[in-house]
Amino acid sequence: MFVMETMATIRSRHAIRQYTGAAPSPAAMAQIETALQAAPVAMGAYDHLHATIITDPAILKAIDDTAARQFGRANMLYGAPVFILLSAKPAHETLGNADYASAGIVVHNMALAATAAGVGCCYIWGAVAALNQEPATVAKLNLPAGFVPCCGLVLGEFAGDYAPREIPSDRIGINRLA
Length: 178
Description:
The structure is a single chain. The chain has one domain: NADH Oxidase (3-Layer(aba) Sandwich). Helix 1 crosses helix 4 and helix 2 runs antiparallel to helix 4. By secondary structure, the protein is of the alpha+beta class. The protein is built from 6 helices and 4 strands, in the order ααβαβαβααβ.
């Protein structure tokens, strides 16, 4: 299996939006699922998160169609053969910052594992927001009671490879308080 050094992986990760149609290998999926399980979660509330690994073309199409209706743009899952959806069970009435942050961290862990394994990946937020507007489509996901989709990651083989890139040191403003 192809494995990168940590900082090379971080510098190489970028959104892949075109896939060959081939799913990641079982070994790569196992690595990605290990990264999912290894992610930190706010207050250690692991039971407040749930992952749904979707490979059923009909469900992927239903999610894409839902997103297209909401945003007027098709193919928001980019034709990827795998979509890992992270859902959270709100501690209160609605999802809060810690819920979204934990789900996002899990997805980012998986993205780094995918990059290290040479598997294409792209964060998915908009299609998930659209999904939450259509309970009939959410029902197809068989989520545990009380869980709400938060974000996800599409995965698949792609033509090309990852290579470390230069990252400008001023992309994000930094204050230093000493």
